[in-house]
Amino acid sequence: MGAVSKIELRLDKEIASFFKSGDFSGYPVEAGKPVSYADFLENKMLIIGAIRNGIPYSLFDLIQDYTPFTESDWANFLDISTKSLQRYRTSSEHHFKPIHSEKIIEMAEVTKVGLDVFGNMEKLRLWLNTPNYALGRLKPIELLKDSYGKELVISELTRINYGILV
């Protein structure tokens, strides 16, 4: 079993635990049926519930390990210092605020789409850090700080996946 498979299993376990322990009444969580990480990223209502409840640091830590982004990238996306990000690990406030939770989930979505397109993390990392003509010659990673940029990056990944190159 490869490293990616192990982390996916850990993500499945952590996301199932999160949805089991939080207040998700009114959201499509079936009693007794664990939610997988893939199911979570496909279900906008579950995403909304997670944002409103706040992503726990334990889940963020796994997502951070699963994505191609550095700690510095994460601090930039979340608009906090790396020191503040490290404080989350040890603070009594173990859940991120909704604004940060939303950004964490957006980066998880970009990673999922990128892996679907490129098949492995190294190719995705290379693409994210290479200036892209279709994205105004910016590196895709430079656009991920805001949701409009994220949408442009996902749209470009989708075009690549369907062979529509600009």
From TrEMBL:
<protein>
    <submittedName>
        <fullName>DUF2384 domain-containing protein</fullName>
    </submittedName>
</protein>
<dbReference type="InterPro" id="IPR046847">
    <property type="entry name" value="Xre-like_HTH"/>
</dbReference>
<feature type="domain" description="Antitoxin Xre-like helix-turn-helix">
    <location>
        <begin position="48"/>
        <end position="108"/>
    </location>
</feature>
<feature type="domain" description="Antitoxin Xre/MbcA/ParS-like toxin-binding">
    <location>
        <begin position="116"/>
        <end position="163"/>
    </location>
</feature>
<dbReference type="InterPro" id="IPR024467">
    <property type="entry name" value="Xre/MbcA/ParS-like_toxin-bd"/>
</dbReference>
<dbReference type="InterPro" id="IPR011979">
    <property type="entry name" value="Antitox_Xre"/>
</dbReference>
<dbReference type="Pfam" id="PF09722">
    <property type="entry name" value="Xre_MbcA_ParS_C"/>
</dbReference>
<dbReference type="Pfam" id="PF20432">
    <property type="entry name" value="Xre-like-HTH"/>
</dbReference>
